[in-house]
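Example record

The entry below shows one chain as it appears in the dataset: sequence first, then structure tokens.
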Amino acid sequence: MISTETIAEQFDELGLEPSTAILERCVHLCNEYNITAADFNSIWVAFSLTHLNGADPTLDNLNELERKEFANAKNVNNSKNKTTSQQPDNNSSCYDDLPDDDIMDSYGFHTPKAPKPQSRLHRAAVENSITASPATYSPVSGLTKAHSDTSGKVIYTYGNSTLLKNTDWGKHCKQDVEIIQLSNNDADTLLATNENYMFDPLLEKCLISRDSLYGIAKDVYMKHFKNDTLRQSTNDNEADIEPFSDLSNPNVPGPEQIKCVGRICCDNEGKLDASSTVLIGTDDSKMRSVNLNFSRLKSFAVIPGQTVMVKGVNPRGDVLYVNEILTENTLNSPKHIQLAEPLSMVIASGPFTKTTDITYEPMHELIQYCQTNKPNVLIINGPFLDADNQIVATGELSESFASFFEKMIVGLVDAIGEDTHIAVVSSSRDAHSTMVYPTHPNKLIRTYNNLSMLPDPCTISINGFTIGIISTDVIGHISDAELAVGVADKIKRCVNYMFHQKSFYPLNPPSLDLFVDSELAAKHGQLNHVPNMLVVPSDTKQFIRDINNCLVLNPGRVAPMSDGGTFARVVVTQSEIETPLMNYVACQIIRV
């Protein structure tokens, strides 16, 4: 049975906190019509945007949702149950209905196919035989368009009503687009394709961690205690302030409240929880640490690896009873940009085909959209050849991963044409990549004037409009690792970890499925400045948010596991004066 807590978690991802009565009504609808909490959340978002102009859930709105969306649900389910017996046997050969033509042939995606086996015995013999020839590929699904009934449907919208009404999502005037990759560090260096990786010894990791802790802790200290320190100082020059002069070691016992800085860690191998949270201080030689007790706090949120400043009392020296956690530093708002003419963009993230085939049907739909609407820029994030894809994982591809990727990108550029500048962002999930984070930009033999190959993560400037991009699912990783009590708006918290920790990937240790190079992350994974837009593709629900005057966008996946793929379209209009973000940026997430 679905509980109110499960529904509340789904609404929390949208930044909503419905009342208990509304949550109970939602639970009733889910149980009445056999709907999961996640599906109900998706249905509500689509219904609210379509019929209620994005209104929050109320009892009247939920009643209207039931009348319009769920009235015939039981009849439909009964009809489906009656036809179940008529479905074909799931064990039938997947080679019985192979398509004659590859849907991507017209775009240069030519993939050799295996000869069609005549029986299951033949198929088993082929799979179990040992040969010296390269593995061959056969698609395991047909080419019938999926989700055709929802293709092009808008599921999320950002921008004021006047701007959205006047926005032309169609063909845009061709303009000179200049994409410049910006440095993610103070040394003004870029991640090169030939840069070494995974050569960071333990001592180097410790020094990098120490420098990061000190730098962020200093910024947090200056934000919260600069004025107090200036009043106590005889010199009012901020540059002469000695930070941390009034801080204590975290494990020194005493009856008085102390202030200390350190990094949040977990003292067990499981997920961070209230009983396993440890603060490791800045003492390099002794690595002082203390257990944190949050019982005095009504609400808090922390992640492993986060640099924090803590106020509390440590009566015995082994447990610090926390009175306050300070995590924010001073953020500079993005620079206001004046464009000569409106800038249109399409932003899409992989995978671009289902996990069971490499027909790239969803990418075909994306290409058709770009051919019709001619955006100025297409930002496309990996993975392109997902290492978890069944065809790739089982070795059925008949050519090298790099060769297949090259043909894919060449076909993409040739199909879309020269009017759209294409930015390709690498991913550690790609079979042909280095599989470490930060991930080197992909290599191509051919070069194009309208093609930019970018690393993960990266910061680019498009005619002065700055965009931070990360292909790694940082939002999902932070959500899984976070310890949060009594706080709402999970998306805003996750993004603010990135901003205030000044890192595209602030988790330490990282997720188990990500291999992080500490030295490369310190050089090329910093997020020292808030960009105009931040692209964070994730397996979580799609969203568009204004956080610290930055447009934060999760366009979803073009080919997710279920429920249809999505991508985003953005138009940045001309703005003569400083104005709220939603007055000059229009954005929509639409179904593939």
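Notes for this example: The longest strand covers residues 258-266. The first helix runs from residue 4 to 12.
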